[in-house]
Write a structure and sequence with these properties.
Blueprint lengths: L9 E4 L5 E10 L2 E12 L5 E7 L3 E3 L20
Antiparallel strand pairs: 1-2, 1-5, 2-3, 3-4
Length: 80
Amino acid sequence: MRNKYNLGQKVKISVSGEIGTVNGIAFYKKNENEPNYLIRYKNNQGVAVENWWDQDALESVELKPDFDVITIRLSKIDGV
């Protein structure tokens, strides 16, 4: 039994595209090899909700920053 996702990890709900955070992991006797995950997310109506999802209903998410990183190269200027 191996978790595909970890507590605190961001995941996407495949059917809706909503992104949330894993807040719980549970194994049930009916399917001991595939955990269920408690996901906290904001639904399409903007309401915060928590629901349990099967592992195969979720996808990994690679979040990108909301800003661009700018690299500035500073050079020493003679006489300054």
